[in-house]
Amino acid sequence: MTDQGFSLFQITLQQRAASVETLLSELLSDQPHSGEISRPARLMAAMRHGVLNGGKRLRPFLVMESAALFGADNFTALRIAAALECVHSYSLVHDDLPAMDDDDLRRGQPTVHRKFDEAAAILAGDSLLTYAFELIASDETELDAQCRVTLITALARASGIGGMTGGQALDLEAEKIKPDEAGIIRLQAMKTGALIRFACEAGAIIGRAGTKDRDRLAEYGSAIGLAFQLADDLLDVTAEARDMGKATGKDAAAGKATLVSLHGVEWAKLQLAGLVEQAEEVLAPFGEKAALLKDAARFIADRRN
Q1: What is stated as this protein's family in its record (predicted)?
Q2: What is the pLDDT of residues 270-304, one digit of tens each?
């Protein structure tokens, strides 16, 4: 711990968050970029509301720390981190819509469709998604063409049919037909876990790691992705809405099947401990270089909001 009572992990997480916030603010300005005709002011305002509304920026942190593990350029990793945060934010904007999860609050603020309207929220989400791939493909992201193609392909898979959006489709189906345990794990690995896994694997891609190390980072990402969703389901049962910045108890009210509803709170806590141990074991070959990534696993399991 430091003199101020904050751990190195907490300080680094805040620093990474500040860096990505600054870059996103610049990228989402009203001033048109080269090749653009104009940037509609209301659309840009809706996009900024969906992105620049706080949050821990955990996924960008994972990109940047995984890339640092292999000595990758920090600014390049930051641009990939910003692209990933655009995809993540798009998913939240769309998930909050009445046709999806129908939420009024996100991080303690009105959701985009509440502050603006549903059309603005849809367009803001669409724009954030497409902008993410532009950021990766741009020459300003100083990576060779093959590396950029690899990142684009991996992110498309993580966010598309077999990943996040497919998981959201399964989540909507689960409101009518409750999945079994294997179905819940598959749903969560897609909806939540896929982007977290990409965040970790992306760092290895940026750092031009070998296949073995890239697989290690992907395995680590899978473990903490499952832990993230399990912790989220636990918080939906145990946390207060004022601490979460959004409504809680919605899963139980909707009768939605989760691993917590199937097995209980104490089982979930034991599983979280096991997932943290798994994540730490996967990172063991990297030694002290992976200390912050190990801390991230514990942070995900122990979080309170």
Answers
A1: Belongs to the FPP/GGPP synthase family.
A2: 999 999 999 999 999 999 999 999 999 999 999 87
Give the DSSP letter of residue 30. Answer: S
Task: Give me the phi and psi of 30, to 5 degrees please.
Answer: -75, -15
| 253 pLDDT more than 60 | no
Looking at residue 206, its amino acid is I
Residues 135-167 pLDDT 10s:
999 999 999 999 999 999 999 999 999 999 999
Coil, strand or helix: which one is 110? strand
Retrieve residue 33's tokens.
């970029």
pLDDT of residue 4: 46
Residue 19 structure tokens: 């860096």
What are the residues whose beta carbons fall under 8 Å from the beta carbon of 303, sequence distance 6 or more? 231, 235
CATH superfamily of the 8-302 domain: Farnesyl Diphosphate Synthase (1.10.600.10)
Q: pTM for the whole thing?
A: 0.93
106 by DSSP, 3-state: which?
strand
Which amino acid is residue 108, in one-letter code? G
Q: Residue 243: its pLDDT value, please?
A: 53
Q: How far apart are CA 257 and CA 93, in angstroms?
A: 23
Instruction: Round to whole Å and give the CA distance between 110 and 87.
Output: 19
Q: Which two tokens stand for residue 113?
A: 């469709």
Burial of 252 (0-12, 13-18, 19+ CB in 10 A): middle
Q: Looking up tokens 């139980």, which residue turns up? A: 252
Closest CA to 108 of 251, 303, 240, 253: 240
